[in-house]
Specification:
Layout: E1 10-12, E2 19-23, E3 27-33, E4 39-46, E5 60-63
Antiparallel strand pairs: 1-2, 2-3, 3-4, 4-5
Length: about 60
């Protein structure tokens, strides 16, 4: 068996009820829902001061 890395999600504060923000050690995630809940936008960026060997996705949009 191989070890599986586990990531601790840390919630980040947002004053907008349509935005959920959280981070792991090196990446921050900001998920925005439209008012009609028909689209989802996710922005992923590096945590300031942390380096990662992966190139993060800059923006993802999914229309439901």
């Amino acid at each position: 068996m191989t070890a599986v890395d586990t990531f601790q999600l840390t919630p980040l504060r947002s004053t907008d009820p349509n935005v959920s923000s959280f981070k792991v050690e090196t990446l921050q995630f900001h998920v925005t829902f439209s008012n009609t809940l028909q689209s989802l936008h996710m922005n992923v960026q590096a945590v300031p001061g942390k380096t990662d060997t992966h190139t993060p996705i800059q923006h993802y949009t999914k229309t439901l």
